[in-house]
Amino acid sequence: MPKKPNILFIMSDEHDPAVTGCYGDKLVQTPHLDELAAGGVTFDAAYCNSPLCVPSRLSFTAGKYVSRCGAWNNECRLPSDDYPSLPRLLTAAGYDALLCGKQHYDAAHRYGFTDLYPAANNHAHMNGRGTRRAPDDFTPDFDNWRGRAQHFHVGNRSAVLDHDRQVTEEVCRFLMHRDRGDKLFFLFLGYLAPHFPLIAPQPYAERYLGQVPLPNVPDGLLDRLPTNYKHLRAGFGLAEAEGDIVQTGRDMYWALTHWLDHHLGMILTVLRQSPAADNTIIIYTSDHGENKGDHGLWWKNCMYEHAARVPLIVNWPQRWSGGQRRTGVCSLVDMVQTLINLTGAHAGDDWEGDSLLPYLDDGTSPWKDFALSEYYGHNIASGYTMLRQGPWKYVYHARMDDHHPPEAELYDLATDPGEFGNLAGDATQAHRIKQMHAALVKQLGADPDENELRCRADFAKGYE
């Protein structure tokens, strides 16, 4: 068994794994991610614990579901600066816990990380507040869409591009100057790409212009969406998301993913030349995905595969041979427990997740095969929770008010990978829904309707 490794943990922002060569995309060029996969273990059914930046990242930091640590939306922070966290556990286990790039933390909190590069995205002042849309108010905010869509174009400068270039530079400098005798490091590398604005440099954009297929939105699908997803369409003004601008946005997303892969390649090249080359585990994932027009939605915020599923590649040839796949369902809190297990750290009994190490060591070993994700963010009338269990995905939309009962989604991904046929209204699935809802409540330790009420109360008072 190899000794404890250095950890290079790479988290991009808004990367739908479907737009990656090693996950089956034949158009996008991601040779470095494909190389990582070829030399490591790729997870086909990994999920974020919230399809929104701050909650997903705080959940990863704390090793808890978002409703368990109060990470409701993008205006939230953990309950205290000394809240138990992954970087603190790894520091206690002998690691330097270093942050380079985006984690979307409050300006006053790093939860045990030391900044390697003080990214601007970690300097917001969170107020803890949030809102709900009235259940029957579908007034569109077209300015929201227009404001974002104007940043779908070819270009060499943007907040994303500038930030990520600096991150690459700082990480490469760190790796080149790290001596073999230094402490082990846990380096969290936070890229922004391929998050909007969808601006990609010309050499990358020109490979995709007019080449990316348009989203598949079957006739009648938009009318069948759950109420909350109709609110997402209204709140983001997506009725205007059509025509050439959809093509351009998708082209730029593919190009920006290619650009990100190039920067990952630069870091991997430097790592191979560094003293840490022979004892560093590389983990690549994202905080959530991107809808890109699928199901009539953009950005993230929902529980469809494009938004809630994330890439997860684990590369450490000293322990695992390459080219392996794992099809069992897992989530990022499982990855947290894996790092704790791998490093000999110790977490409290109230942390979520299970270590993936036995499953990484032996793909035939028993695995729980489920994941849970929650969304309590913006542009919705109520929060919702997803349980993926085997091929089945169940989503519960909490009660909006006394006049609007809860709604549900149920998909069999084995027969309906596009998630176009909601089976929640099928009487033959009533027992399955009852079982999955009970499993969901057991995992959360609370009913989602109760969590929604707690969320609303927290939104109302903010950080007083």
Give a structural overview.
With 464 residues, the chain is an alpha/beta fold. It has one domain: Alkaline Phosphatase, subunit A (3-Layer(aba) Sandwich), CATH 3.40.720. It has 15 helices and 15 strands. Helix 6 packs parallel to helix 10. It is globular and about 65 Å long. The mean pLDDT is 97.
Helix content: 25-40%
SSE ordering: EHEHHHEEHEHEEHHHHEHEEEHHEEEEHH
Secondary structure: number of strands: 15
Shape: globular
The whole-angstrom Rg is: 21 Å
How many structural units, i.e. domains? 1
Structural class: alpha/beta
Give me the CATH architecture, please: 3-Layer(aba) Sandwich
- In CATH terms, what is the fold-level topology? Alkaline Phosphatase, subunit A
Q: Which segments are poorly predicted (pLDDT under 50) over 5 or more consecutive residues?
A: none
Could you tell me how far the N terminus lies from the C terminus, measured between alpha carbons in angstroms? Answer: 50 Å
